[in-house]
Amino acid sequence: MNTKNSPFANNSFQSIWSKHFIPNSNIQAFKFIKGIAFYKHNWLPNYFNVGKNLTKGNNYSLNNTSDFKNKTLIIYDVLPHLMDEITVPKNLGVLKSLQYSGFLINLDQFKNIDDYLLKTFSKNTRMKLRKFSNRLERCFNLSYKMFLGEIDKTEYNQLFDDFIKLLKKRYSDKQITYNNMLPNEWNFYKEVAYPLILEKKASLFVIYDNNKPIAITYNYHTEDTVIDAITVFDIDYSKFNLGYVNNLKLLDWCFENNIKTLDFSKGYFDYKKRMCTKEYDFEYHIIYDKTSLISSFNAHLHYKFFEFKAYLRNKGINSRFHKLTYVFKNGKNSKSKKKIQISKLEELPSLDELMLIEIQNDFNYNFIKKDINDFLYLVIEPQNKIEIYKFKNQNNVYILSCNSTFQQIKIEST
């Protein structure tokens, strides 16, 4: 990643990040290191890269100057695979702590999306992926939009409201804490994304069902790379494997727009491993003055701390911690207590007992939206072809009907 093209070296990114996280600190640069801006710890002689771990990758070069005297510099999310070989000046030490794996797709290896699918997945998997996409597009009135270079501010604000709602829904279902949803981080993302989109340093890729966003991906952009920063899909559409469909639609956009790399960034997920062509490392670098006892001590202390965090993460302690913090904040039984029973019917009950209902824009029926979508996946028909009934004398039983296929949904409180 050329530091001049990096969205994380962008003035908008750095000034807004500083406003949210270090409002009383000054951004500094040093002659001996290029590509990274820093801020100083309040009382220790330690300097941290601007953006810290909210960047999706940094690299730098070193010069033979001595303004590192008595200093310790900590750089998060260094990408060694994008760095040129560096010569470390005399009396300067560099400690490197491996933290995360990253995953990317090198588009230069393929002619187009079809060539990528052919060379990446088995015939059986390709058939499944096409099935998911075809069924999704048959059942719903889908549209796809990439917001890059321009976006109406009102529409932008609405999209970010939808974005956080989908994230809350997703992680409430998973019962874990997601750091990007914490108020300080989310407020930063909501403010920084707008100017970066206008500057073509970021984008929002959105899949709509009619006018409702059902998948949103926030990306950073360099000249020839798209970096997936935050992505979410509506779990009501999970039967259609919407997550994979979203990734493939984004990948198709990349092919159409001459992007060379789609970077899924740090953090392990099965889909990243299956879709990527390259796995790479994220490192934390600690640069220090070897002639200074304090600088050396600080550097090695930070190194041991980062190594310990990586050890805990590799042992799965990090995941357990996020589950515990979720329970602590939301309670042990924060999931819906409704129990839903699904049963197949051979015929439609008497219409005298039923009342036809319209749920498309009625939020009171959101609790059965996923079950209705699962039924759509089964019958493979547009959603406007389904008839939904409710028993007149029972508030907790619903009937789905389409092409002589009938299903009963019974809601029970637990």
UniProtKB/TrEMBL annotation:
Annotated organism of origin: Algibacter luteus
Pfam families in alphabetical order: Acetyltransf_6 (PF13480)
Any one Gene Ontology molecular-function term assigned to this protein's record: transferase activity
InterPro entries xref list: Acyl_CoA_acyltransferase, BioF2-like_GNAT_dom
UniProt name for this protein: Acetyltransferase (GNAT) domain-containing protein
SUPFAM superfamilies in the cross-refs: Acyl-CoA N-acyltransferases (Nat)
Keywords tagged on the record: Transferase
UniProt domain BioF2-like acetyltransferase: residue ranges: 124-273
